[in-house]
Amino acid sequence: MAEAETLLSAAQHAADMADYVEAGRQRALALGNRGPLRFTRDGKVHPDILEAYWATGFYVLEGVIGEAELAELRAGVDEMLERAPVAPGAAVDARGRPALGLGIKRDSYLWVKPLADPVGGTAANGGRHPAKMAEPTPGDDAPERVIYMLFNICENMDGGLRVYGHPGLLAVAQAINGPDFVPYNDAMFVKQPGLGASVAWHQDGLTHWNSPHWDEGIHGFNFQVQLYRCTPANCLWVVPGTHKLGKIDIKKRVDDNGGSDRLPDAVPLFCEAGAVTVVNRQALHGSFANTSPDLRVSYTFGFHRRASVEGQRGVLVVGADHVYDDERIFRRSSVIALAIDARAQHFTQEQRFVYRPFAGLEDHYRWNDEARSRLHDYSLLDLGI
Ligand SMILES: O=C(O)CCC(=O)C(=O)O
Q: Of 44, 57, 176, 268, which is most buried, counting CB atoms within 10 Å of its CB?
């Protein structure tokens, strides 16, 4: 009985969040780091966007992905979910068909317990999530586990590959990380209403905190393409300005907050479907168990400066320990070149992005069946730092 009394119901968690969520919304609106993706007359990302990004550590780009493309992405996610193995490691989906992603070395699906915090307070991801989030108890009808993340997006979903070649987003990557920018990884966070697990507070980067060259951009940034409306109750939260602080004692912040995960200065990245959020990987960020009634699906992919990655020993990646040499960087970066061509073939009226490391090599990176086979297992080449 004593244990039952300490359980936090999903409804109570949602109610407890209400005031915090509203106060966070007001703080977020005051920051001035949201709006459409704008360019100067000579085609550069508008300096106001970059200034606000560097000041706060994030930006909400509104209205980047149109309805038709969103519909393709949502259909791609639905298909991945329908064709998921019936249970982790199973060979067939719920209808007995061969499950998606069987031939890919990296798992395409990650399951967790509903409303749980799978990494907080553990050594996972290099121990970067030192404090545990509140873990509300799901309803009696909740499944034992839910899909929490999808991987290998560029291989499993053509719509996902095309977004990877989006000219506006690649222009942002170039403006933040320089023309020789390189990719990190990609995934989809799936936070189902009443079931979605939390992501404990963390800073993403692991490698460069003590580097003599450390600065506020050295660990790169992540985009999140938002497939559905994000509300303050289900979205990612960021503590503004923390990308400038170096490594933060996150456990102490939570302890100083009375042990509560509702950090007082954090703000929610709420937005409409089709927005793309840009978050500095050094910024302190996390998301709560989704006890709201709204689904969130966030297509997440990141980019680094080439100099941050060159010669680094891999972290946060699947597969053998490996130093990121020129060949690995080039091969992983070729996914961008293929994505640009896949996009150009689909959106024929759009001006394609010129990715400097592959300028002049476009004919070798045409999107076709042979290119599709070259993409196989690309995520084993991810460039985590
Ligand atoms: O979207 C989320 O809930 C978590 C995202 C995140 O932590 C990340 O991209 O590093």
A: 57
* Ligand 1 atom closest to the CA of 222, numbered from 1: 9
- Give 354: exposed, middle or buried? Use CB within 10 Å, 0-12, 13-18, 19+: middle
Residues within 6 Å of ligand 1 by CB:
189, 199, 204, 222, 236, 285, 287, 298, 300
Ligand 1 center to 238 CA (angstroms): 10
Model pLDDT, residue 1: 41
pLDDT band at 221; cut points 50, 70, 90: very high
Q: Tokens standing for 66?
A: 């149109």
For the chain, the first-to-last Cα distance in angstroms comes to: 46
Fold for the domain defined by 2-381: Jelly Rolls (2.60.120)
What is the per-residue DSSP string for 54-120? Answer: HHHSEEEEES-S-HHHHHHHHHHHHHHHHTS-SSTT-SB-TTSSBPTTTT-SS-SEEEE-TT--SST
Please state whether the predicted TM-score (pTM) of the whole model is above 0.90. Answer: yes
How close is the Cα of 18 to the center of ligand 1, in Å?
A: 21
Instruction: Write the CA distances from 34 to 51, 114, 274, integer angstroms.
Output: 12, 31, 13
Whole-number Å distance, alpha carbon 286 to ligand 1 midpoint, is 6
